[in-house]
Amino acid sequence: MPDEEHLTILQRGVEAWNQWREENPGITPVLQGAPLSGQDLTRANLCQASLKQADLRWAILEGADLTGASLIRAALLGARLRGGEAE
Predict the structure, then answer these.
(1) CA-closest candidate to residue 9, choices 33, 44, 38
(2) What are residue 8's phi and psi, to 5 degrees?
(3) Which end of the chain is more exposed for a tag (fewer CB within 10 A), N or C?
């Protein structure tokens, strides 16, 4: 179950999300099971985010920072990941 506050901020757009991440560096985003299918998350700061079981099918994650993100059982069918960062 995603943290509703985190999901609401992300749904406002990548710019709002990245600004929130800058202002709250100590918070680990919980987007577990989030319905993000088809979302444009280009250049989103998803570093250390819990994306377990998230629906990321057909999401655009180009240039997104997924460093340390947990993607266990996340649905990634058709997701665009070009140019992203991950470790």
Answers:
(1) 44
(2) -60, -45
(3) C
Between CA 31 and CA 61 the distance in angstroms is 15
Global confidence as pTM: 0.91
Question: Where exactly are the structural domains of the chain?
Answer: 1-87
How far is 41 from 5, CA to CA, in rounded Å?
Answer: 17
Q: Domain 1-87 sits in which CATH superfamily?
A: E3 ubiquitin-protein ligase SopA (2.160.20.80)
R_g of the chain computed on alpha carbons:
11
Give 35-49 pLDDT, tens digit per residue: 999 999 999 999 999
Which positions ≥6 away from 56 have C-beta within 8 Å? 36, 37, 39, 74, 75, 76, 79
